[in-house]
């Protein structure tokens, strides 16, 4: 879906989420959302906060699982995804704290494997992801599934790509301060979601979007695996669509 701009696209994705939350709350059933960080979903989160504040939308029956977290950061670190999600969304809506799930970047190394298996189990026990929101990195990563990730990969510890760390350097105090590892849901975890919405804005994403949509699905470009999903939609602005 090629939209005029990020505002229009974010509005459409927000509408889908808001409608599902309302429908499920009438049935007294939970909604399970897979959430992403980065600048791309900021307008979506603003719109959800507005729906809570002005339209009486309650998030009491919403359960969230975030895609990823930098490894080795304290929760209160200014660049942790835990902090980002609380600042940009959770602190402004009525979601119960126990419904919020984010990979924990503080787990000791020898416990990471078991921790990741348990994250998968928690998603399953919640009933699976109804909607997964995604951005895309310039390496073609979704979550932190860098090139080389397999189609059936699950939640695990990964090593960040050089380009990803370079792009993140603007948020940290230079590239050296960017963590080398992260915990991320896998491609397999993401592909199990009922619906997937990937969003991308601006010229800087145009090349990777055209490859993700038009190249054969390949681990060299993890977002291309989304072509294998039966219900994945890219919401992009005109600039990001310019190389399609
Ligand atoms: C990080 C996140 C991704 C996100 C990407 C793009 O690498 N782990 O989930 O999609 O950044 O960020 P932005 O939306 O700021 O372009």
UniProtKB/TrEMBL annotation:
The active site is at residues 68, 141, 146. Residues 5-232 form the Glucosamine/galactosamine-6-phosphate isomerase domain. Catalyzes the reversible isomerization-deamination of glucosamine 6-phosphate (GlcN6P) to form fructose 6-phosphate (Fru6P) and ammonium ion. Belongs to the glucosamine/galactosamine-6-phosphate isomerase family. NagB subfamily. This is Glucosamine-6-phosphate deaminase. It comes from Coraliomargarita sinensis. The gene is nagB. The chain holds residues 14 to 257 of 633 of the full protein.
